[in-house]
């Protein structure tokens, strides 16, 4: 089960912690180095960040360390494993993009893709939702 654990951890309620502070905090808890061992993507729209570990670590153990960490609790942040999903949102797409192109692109193993079951285009947002046949093709 641990081998299947996500390499990504979602941190929620991050508004009281600056991005630099969050990165240092994650380095302190994990003992790893930002950029070399993990990346952090801020998602301000939902007051969250996603830490993705490049170096293989036990992310379940990391989440447990976070839940017990004094500073995480002071900031009222929470941490959990990022669950697998079968759909992703592609943004900033060219206006002329087609569902066929997106299907072929996201099915390409070279692009980290897999079999696509559905593509929904949202031209007014220049975005699309791509749904994979299983959650392994959405890296």
TrEMBL record:
<dbReference type="InterPro" id="IPR057050">
    <property type="entry name" value="RRM_PARP14_2"/>
</dbReference>
<dbReference type="Pfam" id="PF23245">
    <property type="entry name" value="RRM_PARP14_2"/>
</dbReference>
<dbReference type="InterPro" id="IPR012677">
    <property type="entry name" value="Nucleotide-bd_a/b_plait_sf"/>
</dbReference>
<protein>
    <submittedName>
        <fullName>PAR14 polymerase</fullName>
    </submittedName>
</protein>
<feature type="domain" description="PARP14 second RRM">
    <location>
        <begin position="5"/>
        <end position="83"/>
    </location>
</feature>
<dbReference type="Pfam" id="PF23085">
    <property type="entry name" value="RRM_PARP14_3"/>
</dbReference>
């Amino acid at each position: 089960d641990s081998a299947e654990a996500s390499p990504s951890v979602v941190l929620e309620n991050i508004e009281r912690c600056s991005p630099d502070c969050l990165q240092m905090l994650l380095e302190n808890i994990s003992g790893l180095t930002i950029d070399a061992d993990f990346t952090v993507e801020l998602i301000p729209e939902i007051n969250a960040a996603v830490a993705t570990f490049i170096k293989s670590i036990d992310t379940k153990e990391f989440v447990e360390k976070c839940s017990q960490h004094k500073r995480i609790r002071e900031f009222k942040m929470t941490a959990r494993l990022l669950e697998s999903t079968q759909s992703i949102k592609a943004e900033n797409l060219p206006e002329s993009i087609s569902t066929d192109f997106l299907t072929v692109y996201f099915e390409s193993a070279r692009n980290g893709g897999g079999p696509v079951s559905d593509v929904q285009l949202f031209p007014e947002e220049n975005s699309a939702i791509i749904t994979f046949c299983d959650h392994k093709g959405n890296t």
